């Protein structure tokens, strides 16, 4: 099974991933309609793309859905069946990563573009990778699951908290040292 893996150190903050996602899913170049969300920490020169982690072990969004409208597609994505969905928003509240949002009364989330994520395809910096989890990629995915789990607040607040935690991890891992040496 493949997942989108984020390499924070490669992200330039260009937000092309948000634009292509919005264009692919909504036929509009409006980043707020994207399923991927980039948080920029411009003072630190760090940008953190946030993607649905397609949780495998008891996904919170799937567990709270009162009508079983969330299932796993054959290519591994958690998908929302809009015909079954009653738009209660429980999945939005349950996602610890803030990656499900309500758009015009309906919950939206990444569905991996049917197994061919456009955000990965158009990321020129190669900060996004769609791959099986093995070796260091498995470690990065596990890190994203554990370091960024937060509860409470709006989806945007949870994404910011997640991004802040990942930024701290990567900057403490030597990113700031490399920047300071150039001065």
Please, what is the average pLDDT? Answer: 86
Structural class: alpha+beta
Q: What percentage of the residues does DSSP assign to strands (E)?
A: 15-25%
- What composes the largest sheet? 2 strands, antiparallel
Assign a percent range to the helix content.
25-40%
Overall geometry: globular
Strand numbers in spatial order across the main sheet? 1-8
Q: Tell me the radius of gyration.
A: 16 Å
Could you state the order of secondary-structure elements as H and E?
EHEEHEEHEEHEHH
The CATH architecture comes to 2-Layer Sandwich
**Alpha plus pi helix count:** 6
CATH topology name, in short, is Alpha-Beta Plaits
CATH level 1 class label: Alpha Beta
Poorly predicted runs of 5 or more residues: 174-183
> What's the total number of strands?
8
Question: Can you offer a commentary on this structure?
Answer:
The protein has a single domain (2-181), classed as 2-Layer Sandwich (Alpha-Beta Plaits), CATH 3.30.70. Helix content is 35%, strand content 17%. It has 6 helices and 8 strands; from the N terminus they run βαββαββαββαβαα. The protein has helices spanning 16-26, 60-64, 90-94, 118-121, 136-147, 155-181; strands at residues 2-6, 37-41, 46-50, 70-72, 78-80, 101-103, 106-108, 128-132. It has a two-stranded antiparallel sheet with strand order 1-8.
